[in-house]
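in:
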C-alpha cells in the first residue's frame, strides 16, 4: 500500500508540473490541475508557501468533499473530484495550512467545451451496485468455464492408482514372508 501511495503522489506531482495550471487571484501559490475542469473531473491542488505546516485543507462548493493537503518543505498537495451536478462558472476555493489562509477561484467549464477525447461525464451519485470481480486475477471465471478432466487425465490417474496398488501388494507380500 505504501508503494502505491508513493507512486500516486509522484504521478500527481509530475502531472502538476507538466499541466497548465490556474493560479489564485492573489498569486499566493495555489494551483489547480486541470485549470478548467468539467463537472465530474478529478482535480489536483498544489499549494506552496505553507512552511509552518505539513497538512492543510481546501474547501470549495465545487468539490465533492473537503480536500486534505499533505506534503513537506512548504508545498502541500491533495486531490478531489468536481461535483457532477455543477453548472459552468467560477467557484471560490479556500485553503488553510497552519497560520496561512489563501483563497483562489476554480473555473468549471461545460463538458462539451472539453476536447472530443475527454471521457464522458459520469452519472450523478454513481456508486457500485455489484460485487467487484476480485481475487485470482479472473481465475474463478476461467475455472467456471473450464471443462472437467479429459482422457489423458483419466489414464494418468489409473496408471498412478495401479502403481500404488502394486507397491502396497509388494510391501505386504514381503512382510508376510518376513524379508523386510
Amino acid at each position: 500500500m505504501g508503494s502505491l501511495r508513493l507512486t500516486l503522489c509522484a504521478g500527481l506531482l509530475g502531472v502538476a508540473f507538466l499541466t497548465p495550471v490556474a493560479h489564485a487571484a492573489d498569486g499566493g501559490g495555489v494551483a489547480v490541475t486541470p485549470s478548467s475542469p468539467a463537472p465530474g473531473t478529478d482535480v489536483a491542488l498544489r499549494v506552496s508557501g505553507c512552511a509552518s505546516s505539513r497538512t492543510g485543507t481546501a474547501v470549495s462548493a465545487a468539490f465533492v468533499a473537503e480536500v486534505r493537503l499533505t506534503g513537506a518543505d512548504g508545498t502541500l498537495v491533495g486531490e478531489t473530484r468536481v461535483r457532477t451536478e455543477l453548472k459552468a462558472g467560477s467557484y471560490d476555493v479556500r485553503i488553510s495550512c497552519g497560520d496561512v489562509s489563501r483563497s483562489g477561484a476554480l473555473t468549471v467549464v461545460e463538458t462539451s467545451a472539453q476536447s472530443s477525447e475527454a471521457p464522458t461525464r459520469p452519472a450523478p451519485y454513481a456508486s457500485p451496485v455489484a460485487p467487484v470481480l476480485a481475487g485470482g486475477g479472473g481465475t474463478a471465471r476461467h475455472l467456471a468455464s473450464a471443462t472437467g478432466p479429459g482422457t489423458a487425465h483419466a489414464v494418468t490417474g489409473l496408471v498412478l492408482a495401479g502403481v500404488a496398488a502394486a507397491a502396497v501388494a509388494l510391501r505386504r507380500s514381503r512382510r508376510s514372508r518376513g524379508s523386510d
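note: The chain has three helices and eight strands.
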